[in-house]
Specification:
With 87 residues, the protein is an alpha+beta fold. Helices cover 55% and strands 14% of the residues. Strands 1-2 form a two-stranded parallel sheet. α2 (49-65) links the parallel β1 and β2. The radius of gyration is 22 Å and the shape is elongated.
């Protein structure tokens, strides 16, 4: 037999899980979607995500200050040896 307390616990758990799924979509930055009119620069790099983020953000701000909207499209085919083979 179910008690009222177990129903409340079930609904509160379901609500918390739903919030955990929906919250990242609501809180993501508005610039996560690139504008359709942005120029695209494709960069091959063996660097990690932190380096790519910092350089991409800095370059985008640099170009915006000069009147150009540029989207940096990072490609990471592997390390330096793999990139050399790719090229």
């Amino acid at each position: 037999m179910k008690t009222r307390g177990s129903d409340i616990g079930l609904w509160s758990t379901a609500g918390l899980l739903s919030a955990l799924v929906v919250l990242p979509f609501l809180l993501r930055p508005s610039d996560a979607e690139p504008p359709a009119h942005a120029e695209r620069l494709v960069v091959l790099s063996p660097h990690n995500e932190a380096v790519r983020y910092e350089f991409g953000l800095g370059f985008r701000q640099y170009m915006l200050a000069r009147g150009r909207n540029v989207l940096v499209d990072w490609r990471t085919p592997g390390g330096t040896a793999e990139i050399s083979r790719y090229l």
